[in-house]
Write a structure and sequence with these properties.
Strand content: 35-45%
Oligomer: single chain
Number of helices: 2
Structural class: mainly beta
Amino acid sequence: MSGTGEYDNNNDLHDRMSELASSAVSSQGNINVELQDQTSEIIDLLVTQKLDDLTILVNTNVDEKTANIETTGVTPAVGNYVCFKEGTAFYQGRIQNVTPIAGNQYTIGLDSLLDYPFTTSGGCALTSPDMNVDGSVTPVVFRVSPALLEAGTRWDITRMMLTITDSSAMDDGKFGGAPPLNNGVIVRVKYNGTRKNIFTVRENGEFRLRAYDVSYLDATLGPAGLESMGVRRSFNGQDKNGVAIRLVNDDDPDEFQIIVQDDLTVLDSFRVVVQGHIVAD
C-alpha cells in the first residue's frame, strides 16, 4: 500500500480483504459481533386484569398527579391502576383517591407523576394487578400489551418477576402458602391471534424448575409479618432461552398473559412485573 493510503495493486487489496474477513469469523465459523448497549425506552410494567375501558376528559400536563376520566360503568377504587396510552407514550399508575364528577366521570389522584401530556385523544383502561383472585370457574386473564399505541409499535419483554405474600409458611410443595393448585397458573403469549404457552405452575417448586431464581422470606423478614416469596424468570441471554418475547401492535395486538385458573383468594397478594424495552426503528 502506498504512502497515500491507496492500495498499490489488486493483490494488496485482496490481502487486506482476506485479513478483515478472517478477523470477522471465529474459529467455529461464526461471525464475530460487537455488542452495544441499546438506548431505547425501558418497559417496566405490572401485568394487570382489565376492569373497564376509560377515556381522558381533560388534557393533562406533565408532572400532574390527577386526571379526569370516564369509564363505561365500573367505579374506580383506591388501589386500582390506570393505564394511559397515546401515540408511543404509555403510563401506569395506582389510584390514590377518587372524587365523583357526574355519572361515570371521576377525578382520580395518582401515586406517580404523569410523564407525558396525555390528551382527550388518549385513554386505555382501569385495571387491577392483584392476581389473588378466583379463576376456578372462569379463568382470569392478566395482560401486558402495546395495544392502542401507534401501529407497528414493538416491545421486547426480557424477563418477568413475581412476588407472593401469605400468612402461611411456604415451601416447594405449596403454591405460595396454599396447597398445590389443581389447574395451575399459565404463562402465555398471544402472537397475532395464535397462542403459545410458555409454562404452567401448580406449586412453588415448579417455579424453581422453570425460573430457578426463587427466594423465600419468613414472617420475621416479610412485609407486615407475612411470609413471602420472589421469583425471577429471564428469557433472553444464551444461558436462558436466548430470545426476547416480542409483542407487536398490529391488527390483532400481541399480549403477554398470566392466566389464573384456580381460587387464589387465600393468598394475601400475588403480582407479576415484566421488564424489557421498546424496539427502536
